[in-house]
Amino acid sequence: MENTKLTTEEIQELQEVRQQTQALITELGNLELTKIQIENRYDELVDFYSQLKQKEQELGKTLSEKYGDGTIDLEKGEFIAS
After folding, report:
1. What integer pLDDT is reported at residue 1 of this predicted model?
2. First CA to last CA across the chain, in angstroms?
3. Cys-Cys with 81: which of 8, 17, 53, 70 at CB 3.0–4.6 Å?
4. CB 39 within 8 A of CB 33
5. Phi/psi at 74 (nearest 5 deg)?
6. DSSP structure string for 2-34
7. What is the per-residue pLDDT across 59-78, written as a single tens digit (0 to 9) for each?
8. Who contacts 78 (Cβ-Cβ below 8 Å, separation ≥6)?
9. Closest by Cα among 63, 65, 69, 64 to 81
10. Measured between alpha carbons, how far is 41 from 39 in angstroms, rounded to an integer?
11. DSSP string for 28-75
12. Does pTM top 0.85 for this prediction?
């Protein structure tokens, strides 16, 4: 069986498909890296939220021991006994 030459157009189309495939692979790789970074940042924020909640509870306990039961008006900077 003889080898058959491809037309210039066919070669160009094949090269274009190859280039688009490479661009797609690169973009998917970049997207995956971005996804990993977002997941890592999400985990950091969840940890930070947990730390804030713990700090809030500790501060609430400290203030409750000092002032008793009640609420705090941050605008006025006052403790309101219940």
Report:
1. 84
2. 98
3. 70
4. no
5. -65, -35
6. ---PPPHHHHHHHHHHHHHHHHHHHHHHHHHHH
7. 999 999 999 999 999 999 99
8. 72
9. 69
10. 5
11. HHHHHHHHHHHHHHHHHHHHHHHHHHHHHHHHHHHHHHHH-SEEEETT
12. no
* Residue that is written with structure tokens 């189309």 in the block: 13
Q: What angle do CA 67, 71, 77 make, to 5 degrees?
A: 80
The token duo for 72 is: 């705090």
Phi, psi of 3 (to 5 degrees): -75, 140
User: 29-33: long-range contacts at Cβ-Cβ below 8 A with a sequence spacing of 24 or more?
Assistant: none
Segment 30-42, tens digit of pLDDT: 999 999 999 999 9
Distances in Å between the alpha carbon of 4 and those of 1, 8, 11, 23, 68?
Answer: 9, 13, 13, 29, 93
Token pair of 2 as six digits: 């003889």
Asked if residue 72 lies in contact with residue 82, where contact means CB atoms within 8 angstroms, the answer is: no
